[in-house]
Amino acid sequence: MTDFPLTEEERSQIQLRLQALEIEHHDLDDVIDRLALDPGQDRLQLQRLKKRKLLLKDQIARLRTRLIPDIIA
């Protein structure tokens, strides 16, 4: 990370990426919920989807943090 504030273009790009990640996270949540109800579902596949969802959550948190300006104390 740099100490320089984001430009409007950078902020816009981050917001677009954030929106895409949030949609993917929500979609994965729906898929995981549906697959979890099927007793014949491959558990390994389900675990991979859950891991991907956690990675997305981490990416979303990092991007949100970048959008919050540092407050000089």
Layout: helices, strands, pairs:
Layout: H1 8-36, H2 43-67
Description:
The chain is mostly helical and 73 residues long. Helix content is 74%, strand content 0%. The protein has helices spanning 8-36, 43-67. Helix 1 runs antiparallel to helix 2 (43-67). It is elongated, with a radius of gyration of 17 Å. The protein starts with 7 loop residues before the first helix and ends in a 6-residue tail after the last helix. The mean pLDDT is 90.
Q: What is the 3D shape?
A: elongated
| Order of secondary-structure elements | HH
Q: Radius of gyration over alpha carbons?
A: 17 Å
In this structure, how is the largest beta sheet organized?
Answer: none
Overall pLDDT confidence: 90
The amount of helix comes to: over 70%
- Our estimate of the beta-strand percent is under 5%
SSE-based structural type = mainly alpha
Number of domains: 1
- The total of helices stands at 2
Uncertain parts: none
Report how far the terminal alpha carbons are from each other: 19 Å
Tell me the number of strands.
0
| Oligomeric nature of the chains | single chain
Quick take:
This protein is mostly helical and 73 residues long.
